[in-house]
Amino acid sequence: MLAGVAIFCSSCDSLILYNPNEVIFDKDERNLNAKNIERIQQIPITDTLQFILMGDTQRWYDESADFVKSANNQKDVAFVIHAGDISDFGIGQELKWVNDIMKKLKYPYVTVIGNHDIVANGPANYRKMYGPMNYSFEYGNNKFVFINTNSREYAFDGSVPDIAWLKSQLADNPSNKNIIVIGHVPPYDGDFDKNLEKDFADLLGSNPNVNMSLYGHKHSFNDGEFYNDGVHYFVTTNVGARGYMMVKVWKGGYKVDRIEF
Amino acid sequence: MAHRFLLIIALGISLNAFGQREEVFQKSKKWYLPDHMKLQFAGGVGFLSGGPGYSSRNKTLETDILFGFLPQKFGGDALVTITGKTTYSPWRIPVRNEHYIVPASIGFYLSYTFGPQFDSKWPSYYPKGYYWWATSFRPGAYIGGKVGKNFIYKERKRGIEAYYELGTYDLLLVSYAQNRGYLHLRDIVNLAIGIKYGF
């Protein structure tokens, strides 16, 4: 029997589960945002940057695999942004499944944390697999700022989104790069802290380098200049609805197309 | 780590090749005292878990309470779990020298993991039904089997068994049901192994 179990167990790793909430990741499943940013920054810079905005893969693995096929058939894509709700239950296994699918993309992908990724041990899983919840990077003439906007998960205690951090990120832009702020919950949604909505929108609206801001969460396409301040908000649909957004950015302009697959 | 644990179980079984005496009168014990103890490795309820249990008179039904612990070193987070489980094993095939095989078991469990990050009832700042599952309670089910041996020790008929269980839990089962293309059964199944000592 022992030999039987030993043979059966030759690929024991995935067979052994100590607790659904365990926070265990292989070396190649850690700190993925930083690793993928490194890959992005090695891509030659062109006049027009094209990237994909998709999100809410939560419990839609079949559709996520189809998304990868569709994305890989697109031309001139630099990278993919996952707008959050990577997992449904905040369980590490879900993040691993999604990463296994997203690894098949021809492009690097980066993520922003969604409300479902904050459930249970979700924050610990996210930090281990992807890194800090608030982060930014620059590529070409653009600065991408990723921020946790899932206020409801923190009982609307005023800490999320971190307005002070966002302010410092927007201020730290000596060469006046085009700034794109990415979150999961858009500021005009009920899951965003009402007490921080104005501060958040004003920060974006008053900054001449911010023209667009990208989100997920709503499970349908949605966009508009909701605060009449020159900032256009774009929300991608969920992968379950078989859609994503193709974003083109160039100096002085941008174009966003809705894609269905 | 897993292999070392298997070795311990194997040693435990072979060490129990004593007490080969004629059956003696089985002293009746107090009804509330447990019939057996189990010690389990993995299975989603701790790195190690163990605790008392009761068996039905015909030994086909066992009910256990397992106290599980996952050290931070192995789990990335230190987690304490209490589990109630019931296992039904309809057949028992005698081999030789009081050894027997239980080819099939089926069972289910409900575990509770402690921690401020886990909720049984979602806080009031969520609209009703915002999330439909509790994060502290985890129901699961499994199939398995075991091998065992009866022996007499200190004038009492006792037994030791080694078991395995292949199981999954609600959240993975829901994920599997909705993603039959990408997910396979092997993706959601995990293995538990353990020993049972019957007093």
TrEMBL record, chain A:
SUPFAM superfamilies listed in its UniProt record: Metallo-dependent phosphatases
Protein name: Metallophosphoesterase
Upper taxonomic lineage: Bacteria, Pseudomonadati, Bacteroidota, Cytophagia, Cytophagales
InterPro entries reported for this sequence: Calcineurin-like_PHP, Metallo-depent_PP-like, STPP_CPPED1
Protein origin, superkingdom: Bacteria
Domain Calcineurin-like phosphoesterase: 51-220
Organism: Dyadobacter luticola
Any one GO MF annotation of this record: hydrolase activity
